[in-house]
Design brief:
With 539 residues, the protein is mainly α. 69% of the residues lie in helices and 1% in strands. 52% of the residues are buried. This is Amino acid/polyamine/organocation transporter, APC superfamily.
């Protein structure tokens, strides 16, 4: 029986990192590009949506909730930074697990990262489509529901629209966006009448194929293919495109903070601890869990380590600076939002947009919509970029078909076949699949990767303490404070996602184990001693 826990030696890893030529990835990313990739992955539409839910759990202390969430990511981020500087290879947590925990764990985390990145890109493409449709509404352009959503989501959206109209007529005392309105709407949606269902089908107005209603999210499909095309053309072109998008959305976030500050009423922040944190420390913790997912994505930076010019210096900069900057901006948005509107009145569906509409500045709300589109565009790009690099790393080790996923385009110097496949998968899943449950699977998969990296950094400190570490995460050895806090915080977040998502994760991992034992174990280059191992100078 093959050694399921065989590890890649640091010597073989460093040999791979020195590979050059047309069959290797191109090192062309500096600290600015890497930081931009980090910001591009983190700042999406979440800050413009989740802040509303967080405010109803923490009140004005939503600012502290973002601090707490940022700290939780920082614990994992410091561990990622140490590995990325020490092992400058594509693959991120997959590669780190291979060097510390062995092949079986590496496969599990690689399969898990596929869940995070490919399915994450599908989720984002669907969200991008929603915001794009809203953007068209600014100009009075109506997109057919059956072409803006998959069938199930389109029907649910149509049902929600007719239910909202019915609720507004029956209960004019309830205001849209408030918790009472949302609760009443949920009750109607849970048990819709036959009349409402019929109205929803009429509003959807979907064509029938063999007597079955169909739906296809056309904007989600198109944007995923466009992003895939950019990624195939080259890493430099992808980084430049991402940087342009990031500059745009940073400008919009700063606009929200700067312009919104003119409407801040400091009394809305409270006058003492009780009014600042009406639900106490527990409320802050709950809100931190809700807004935590606004941070997910920074780990994708580590998948580009093999394309960084000076990974020892630049990878930690990219990870830490992007996380720090995003945390500061999130706190600023939270402060402005809770200052503009009393927390009890903050809209939970579109908090920032509604806050500006309260002050009759609709054009500012339109700017926020544009910011959401820009944010999701760069998130999708970095997700698909990370996915193709993880597949490339796994193929190089023989765990996936090497001739397909490991093939580098001679001109563009990108893993083009794997990129196209990941992009097509994201486009198809995002256009025909209800995305809500997949989004929750992405969250639990990401948190699992965080936990494994925190464990792995301690393992390598113990097994190879003398290995040069250009960046050393603080408080790791001999007392692993940072990794333990990372495990506890992210493990707690996994627990809070509930049993249904644990079941989905287990099913996904079982499928992965079937693939491993039927294909990957038999083709593993580590198991067959085929990986190059020769003394090299450390990068």
């Amino acid at each position: 029986m093959a050694d399921l826990f065989a590890k890649k030696t640091m010597e073989s890893l460093m040999t791979e990192a020195h590979e050059e030529g047309t069959h290797s990835l191109q090192r062309s990313l500096g600290p600015v590009s890497l930081t931009m990739l980090g910001i591009g992955a983190v700042i999406g539409a979440g800050i413009f949506v989740l802040s509303g839910l967080g405010a109803h759990s923490a009140g004005p202390s939503l600012m502290l909730a973002f601090v707490l969430s940022g700290l939780g990511c920082a614990f994992a981020g410091l561990c990622y930074a140490e590995f990325a500087a020490m092992i400058p290879l594509a693959g991120s947590a997959y590669t780190y697990a291979y060097a510390t925990l062995g092949e079986l764990f590496a496969w599990i985390i690689g399969w898990d990262l596929t869940l995070e990145y490919a399915m994450g890109a599908s989720t984002v493409s669907s969200g991008w489509s929603n915001n794009f449709v809203e953007f068209l509404n600014i100009f009075g352009l109506k997109f057919p529901l059956w072409l803006a959503y998959d069938h199930w989501t389109g029907l649910r959206t149509a049902l929600e629209r007719v239910a909202r109209a019915s609720l507004a007529a029956q209960r004019p005392d309830l205001h849209p966006g408030t918790m009472p309105f949302a609760d009443a709407l949920s009750a109607i949606m849970a048990h819709p009448s036959a009349a409402l269902s019929a109205q929803a089908h009429a509003l959807l107005n979907a064509p029938h194929v063999f007597g079955v209603e169909i739906g296809f999210n056309l904007p989600a499909f198109i944007i995923a293919l466009l992003i895939t095309t950019i990624l195939v053309i080259g890493i430099q072109e992808s980084a430049k495109f991402n940087s342009g998008i990031v500059v745009m959305k940073l400008a919009i976030v700063l606009f929200v903070i700067g312009f919104g500050s003119h409407y801040v009423n400091r009394a809305n922040w409270g006058t003492d601890w009780h009014s600042f944190a009406p639900f106490g420390v527990g409320g802050i913790g709950l809100a931190a869990g809700l807004v935590f997912f606004s941070y997910i994505g920074f780990d994708a930076v580590s998948t580009t380590a093999q394309e960084a010019i000076n990974p020892q210096r630049d990878m930690p900069i990219g990870i830490i600076v992007s996380l720090s900057l995003c945390t500061i901006l999130y706190i600023g948005v939270a402060a402005v939002l809770t200052g503009m509107v009393p927390w009890q009145s903050i809209n939970i569906e579109a908090p920032i947009v509604r806050a500006f509409l309260e002050y009759k500045v609709g054009w500012a709300a339109d700017v926020v919509t544009i910011g959401s589109i820009a944010g999701l565009t760069s998130v999708m790009l970095v997700m698909l970029l990370g996915q193709s690099r993880v597949l490339y790393a796994m193929a190089k080790d023989g765990l996936l078909p090497r001739k397909f996923f490991g093939d580098i385009h001679p001109r563009f110097r990108t893993p083009w076949k794997g990129t196209i496949l990941a992009g097509l998968l994201a486009a198809i899943v995002g256009s025909v699949t209800p995305i809500d449950d997949i989004g929750k699977m992405v969250n639990i998969g990401t948190l699992l990767a965080f936990v494994i990296v925190c464990v792995a950094v301690v393992m390598l400190r113990r097994t190879d303490p003398d290995r040069p570490r250009p960046f050393r995460a603080p408080l790791v050895w001999p007392i692993p404070v940072v990794p333990v806090l990372g495990v506890l915080f992210n493990g707690y977040m996994m627990f809070k996602l509930g049993p249904a998502n644990w079941i989905r994760l287990v099913v996904w991992l079982v499928i992965g184990l079937v693939v491993y034992f039927t294909y990957s174990r038999r083709h593993s280059r580590v198991q067959h001693g085929l990986l190059p191992v020769k003394p090299v100078d450390h990068l």
